[in-house]
Amino acid sequence: MKRTLALLLSAALLLSGLAGCGGGTQGNVQGNVQGNVSEDGSSGKTIVIGGQSDLVTLDPGNMYEPYGNMISYAAYDMLYRVQSGTMGTPEPSVATDYTVDETGTVYTFHLRDDVVFASGNPLTAHDVVWSVKRVMNMKESNAYTNVRIVENVEATDDYTVVFTLTEPDASFLIKLTSNAYCILDSEVVKEHGGSDSGGDEAKAWLDTTSAGSGPYVIESWTPKEQLVLQKNPNYWGESSNIDTIIFREMTSVDAQITALKNGEVDIILGLNSETAKQLEGVEGITVTNGPTAMLTFLVMSRDESLSPEMANPLVQQAVRYALDYEGYLTLGGDGCTVPLNFVQQGFSGALTRDLATEGQDLERARELMAEAGYPDGFTVTLTCANNNSEGLEWTTIAQKVAEDLAEINITVNIETLETTLVYERMREGSMPFYVMFWTPDYYDINNQIDAFLPGVGDDGTAYGNRTMWERTEENEALWTLGNQIKTDTDETERAALSEELQRLFDQDNPFAFLLQHPKTFAYNSNTLEEVTYNDLCKIELCELVAK
Question: Which biological process, per GO, is one annotated for this protein (predicted)?
Fold first, then answer.
């Protein structure tokens, strides 16, 4: 086993090195470029970030990818945003205060009266209402799940917004910190096809620019290459001393490390505990880390038309027993944990897998395969993107899965595709078996419930639809517990209910959760003041300060 893990780690490093040979940093943009002249005549600065994002769109009403909020937080405001350096603590942004009625369903927010959009238009309660209703009428959007709780939203005057919820929601204030609640310049977006009553056609335009009130505006985006943000000259808050931020797409971790050493980038995001060792002792470079809620897991569809064998719940349970969880911890590096299932550490009642009693059990896995009718196994395609989870390549994970499942006679053929194509097929529900990661849209267990519990159709969940895991009488107990958690405001009670839910979920589900990852990144401390990390929006671009 140790030899196999060593080979997998070596292969991962080799692939990373090969990717670096042809990748590198196109254009050789130097970090912290001096000489950009601001509108006030001062010399501005440029900061370059190297990483591998998963950006599919820049429209905050359609964003659902882990790196989406890094951009939305720079270009837009919400009523509330996540407090710097926390895992999800909400703090006021455009809102000044709020009240909630005795039913727990009516929230009234008062807004600042000095906020303006990049266009110069004032931000009012009417823009908040329009922006939320736009997403409420975009049911095809992945962000829709986060506004589904809203029954109605109205402006009672220019600076007061009232939300009426379908039911009490213990997480609503935290939910407001997600990109689904970004406030758009309604007058400008309507000129480009935006609608708050259905039939919105503004996404294509919003993929080229922004219409927000944040400290930066989107200058340009070339998917899979780079994104450029420019300082918003009409920003209502404290102005940054950085005029331009460039996010450079770099798939190779080795290329990121080399670029940081050479001063070509100022921040790199693709490290893990092992690759970060290459930067130990390098003058002027600071390596830091922090907690994340990122999960890496396997998805096994219940759609029998894709693979009748893999869709069998007994086979899916066998897969969970066959996995060598300690081996994945070794691949993930220091700081990784194995969650019991869909609730991460940091959320109410989160449970980790006890590897002594809930780890790999090949005997039990083989019994389940025989019970399912496949004692001699079968062949299945495992799809993975050319992507990584905090520096751990998905191809490396796939190779390990193939090795583990060979022990129970499942032959795994690995299919590697571009990340955007995997996301597309994931949302179509057209893959029988694949590697995926997940970070929450907002930091509360309610986000996980609405993503991973069973349910298909418009009222289904994200992964209920993606796996065709239907809500039935047999699994309704999951929702009984889930709905109690979603409305209960007593944290002790929520934690106890959460533990019960996770134990019940573990008995039957179409997933195998492998790891929860820490975040490791590095920056040039000669060009930047201390860089903080926030797992919702990754690097807080609006708080970067150049030296």
Answer: peptide transport
Number of CB atoms found within 10 A of residue 220's CB: 13
Quote the longest CA-to-CA distance of the chain.
75
Q: Which long-range contacts (CB under 8 A, 24 or more apart) does 426-431 make?
A: 426/299, 426/466, 427/142, 427/466, 429/301, 429/303, 429/465, 429/466, 429/467, 429/468, 430/306, 431/299, 431/301, 431/306, 431/381, 431/383
Please report how the helices 394-406 and 2-22 are oriented relative to each other, as an axis angle in degrees rounded to 10: 150
- pLDDT at residue 222 greater than cutoff 90: yes
pLDDT score, position 459: 87
* Nearest in space to 435 (alpha carbons), one of 448, 423, 449, 445: 423
Cβ neighbours for 483, distance < 8 A, ≥ 6 positions apart? none
Q: Quote the mean pLDDT of the chain.
A: 91
- Residue 518 is classified by DSSP as -
Token pair for 22: 């042809």
Residue 120 has pLDDT above 90, yes or no: yes
Residues 169 and 487: beta-carbon distance below 8 Å:
yes
Closest CA to 61 of 253, 212, 170: 212
What is the rounded average pLDDT of the residues 99-112? Answer: 97
Q: Give mean pLDDT, residues 110-125.
A: 98
CA 378 to chain centre: 33
What's residue 43's pLDDT? 56
How high is the pLDDT of residue 296? Answer: 98
Inter-residue contact 455 to 464 (CB < 8 Å): yes
Beta partners for 221?
Answer: 227
Distance CA 241, CA 244 (A): 9
What's the pTM? 0.83
Helices marked H in 338-407 — which ranges? Answer: 355-358, 362-372, 394-406
Rounded CA separation 151/15 (Å): 50
